[in-house]
């Protein structure tokens, strides 16, 4: 890559090799991304006629017509399966009959679901497994939950392709599929930059194409507080970048939650404290710790003031609202990067340290604060997720708390995985997938090559790694560059988290498949950037 | 940046400092980017009423109504000056009269141009200087050419701002402005990825907001040949990614040229040879050198075959077409990165080397080839621009040839600048602005801090540096990520190339101005990515 990084141009040799690979980008048999656990397909292909194509519920299925999740999925997937069809000529065009003669046989996608949870929300234990059997005239899709059925519909939609004459085909295929990890998250940061609602909804769409199932909403932080709280409206009216144009109303939030639900995606809210709370101070005077310069307040503020009982009362009222607004049974409580300088400078905090017998160990103070917040959350019948810092300080926290690894060198990350799981805590791995860190070149291969379970530990410990998360921090990202930075780079992590590592270990094998999948994303209107030199049959049109 | 590059999150201290800076992002007096050579503005401001605002030609102006360049500029700049006005309510809305009473005084932008070149094209010597004087009810804009008037209109449009109630204002201002460098280029690469026409046209729009004046169209290269040639239609029908969807027809090309002309932008075509021509071979058998493996051809091809007279006949016919299609008096002939391996392997080329007495020095062969191409171009009355490699090999090339520096360490670049200008050649500096090289963080500061004339040489030598160029190579860039990668990062180079280095040397002073300019770009529909944490009053809407 030397020449490349110096001149941004590649040697002909490397170029030819890669372009040679490109020609496999549109294979005879359409691949599925992320790779299913088991897939076998033959060269036998069946033509599909959009006008002779139906979704159906099988007789035995507990979900039947009226199932909101699947009915809307059918509506959504028809134009995704028959891309270009609606756009190019619309379903009722005259020449449509010539192109797709009614004499064609009917093709049915028959869905069978065991437990119909059509009005519920996906949760941490929801099964997403499914079986898909595509034969002449029939695609039989079986799943134990509607969430599994959604994953199967996504896989089916990726199996359909058009030949050069525009005819749709699907090959004879057998798929038996389930996710490797239960938690496959993507974090968006709406505090460093405000993301308009459409940007969030489009991200949820793309997440579902990648089989991500958790939207980690890092909704507030130091720079701004866009969440419009019912209990504390001043937090956004004074703490957001703008009280009207740069906030998420309750309506906005419920739109995000229901958009996500229909795609089998959980919405995990993060209320990060005691640090990362500068913006909170504007709407909630007295919450943050006044920093002192010698004997007098300096006028600046630090983390939430852990010495005041009012802080905990505020937090418990805020968390009570959040846990009623967000249906998920988990809440992310943050707890990262607490700067002790301001606490140390404050006489009230110093006095509290004495009173509590913490001496001068401020990690004890942070522990004390976080324990309180975690217990508040527990009383609200929610399970806590916290950044690894909370474990690193050895707080006494409930054993069902989930730790979130966000920092360290590869070796440090392995050690952290070992020690956290050894202590019996469940863990989510985010550190290797800080996707806001961009470089020129094919950095997707880095995200693809991560081995989440490659650390010293027993089988039992490995089971405690419940998944991973792609993090898109917002310092340099807003609606202008979110999509091309996310996709298809995050797709590499998506396959790592869903698929069997043994069958997806080769970057070279993955390259033509992810290149083809990126073209699929483009066709679906996702502004997914190119992986390397080449083209898609349909380039991005949204210019 | 350690913490940032490790964790993608910044310390509160740095965050606060930067956010503090942000508050200067919308100054009382609107700044102009790139910074004019001389600007003085007072706090006196005049309200502007869109319904009482006119563009006029002064009586003495040689350009009058009917001047295509300026008439269309007036039409273009009205909605740019009164952003939100057309969109929000349209010019004829009822409440418009209430908001903008007709009793308001008329405000006129009166344009005076010395030489009316209304139907011509901007060229290498076109003056772009202008004087702008904004006072009560009048903005007097004087320029010697229509191209200078365009620059003045852009500056005026940036002076206008809205207060929190939506009222438009402009402050009393005096500007005397001219570009530091005559050549301020931006390169797009349409071979590694095809860029749909709208992506190119939108880039030209954004270039004009940044006062760039040369669109360097690297139109063909190894991966694809999208230029649809009249003389050699097979080049694109066989060498493009797709013969219909991924080509530039003659109509497309003339649209680009006229769109650029109306914005005072030259279109400089690059026909890069003898290397970077793999895609040419498909449509022009016999042009490329067959590479040999021992005694037999290996089936692969190298650069254009310099031993065949047919190669030069082909090139002269192709260049003849190109020089008639593109009106600019310059043509870029490439000449970079020629790999000698294939030439060395080919018996015919070996024989030619003997015949010419080049011994085994293949740089002599490349020199011979490039001299021929440059002379062909000279006969077509065009001036050649070539990449620095051509100079490095000491070819005998006409002294009016322009050298284009694209590689090397800062020190190497300084030496190259010294030696090229010492030899009396004019030079364009591109190497420091390879903007396809992305990193996390504020890399715009790197592009901003370049000092193009910081090399050892006489005043006469420095004068030979005619400008610089931002290069967006296409390995990892297409329509999905072009705009956010270009803007506002290229804007940093734009100011360096237009403005006085002494008054624009501080990155800290530039930060709030470029942050504000980036919001201006957003308002104008340019998908310009954020520079750092913060927000714009109007976020990007094109989601």
What structural class should be given to the helix and strand makeup of chain A? Answer: alpha/beta
Number of helices of chain A: 21
- Order the strands across the largest sheet of chain A as they lie in space: 8-9-10-13-14-15-16-17
Residue share in helix of chain A: 25-40%
Shape of chain A: elongated
Q: Output mean pLDDT of chain A.
A: 92
Describe the largest sheet of chain A. Answer: 8 strands, parallel, barrel
Greatest interface: A-B, 69 and 69 residues
The low-pLDDT segments of chain A are: 1-27
Number of strands of chain A: 17
> Could you tell me the strand content of chain A as a percent range?
15-25%
The end-to-end distance of chain A, rounded to whole angstroms, is 31 Å
Q: How is the quaternary structure best described?
A: homodimer
Radius of gyration of chain A: 25 Å
Describe this structure in words.
- The structure is a homodimer of 543-residue chains.
- Chain A has helices at 2-7, 12-22, 68-81, 85-89, 94-99, 146-159, 197-209, 234-239, 250-261, 278-283, 309-325, 341-345, 347-356, 362-379, 389-392, 410-422, 444-448, 459-463, 482-486, 489-498, 507-523; strands at 38-48, 53-57, 107-113, 130-135, 138-143, 161-162, 168-177, 183-189, 214-218, 266-273, 288-293, 296-304, 330-334, 383-387, 402-405, 426-429, 465-472.
- In chain A, 37% of the residues lie in helices and 20% in strands.
- In chain A, the strands form 3 sheets. Chain A has an 8-stranded parallel barrel with strand order 8-9-10-13-14-15-16-17, surrounded by 6 helices.
- In chain A, strand 6 (161-162) and strand 7 form a beta hairpin.
- The radius of gyration of chain A is 25 Å and the shape is elongated.
- In chain A, helix 11 (309-325) packs across helix 14.
- Chain A contains 21 helices and 17 strands.
- Chain A has 543 residues and is α/β, with parallel strands linked by helices.
- At the A-B interface, helix 1, helix 2, helix 7 and helix 19 of A face helix 1, helix 2, helix 7 and helix 19 of B.
- Chains A, B: It is found in: Lysosome.
- Chains A, B: Keywords: Disulfide bond, Glycoprotein, Glycosidase, Hydrolase, Lipid metabolism, Lysosome, Signal, Zymogen.
- Chains A, B: One of its GO terms (molecular function) is beta-N-acetylhexosaminidase activity.
- Chains A, B: It comes from Umbra pygmaea.
- Chains A, B: The active site is at 337 (proton donor).
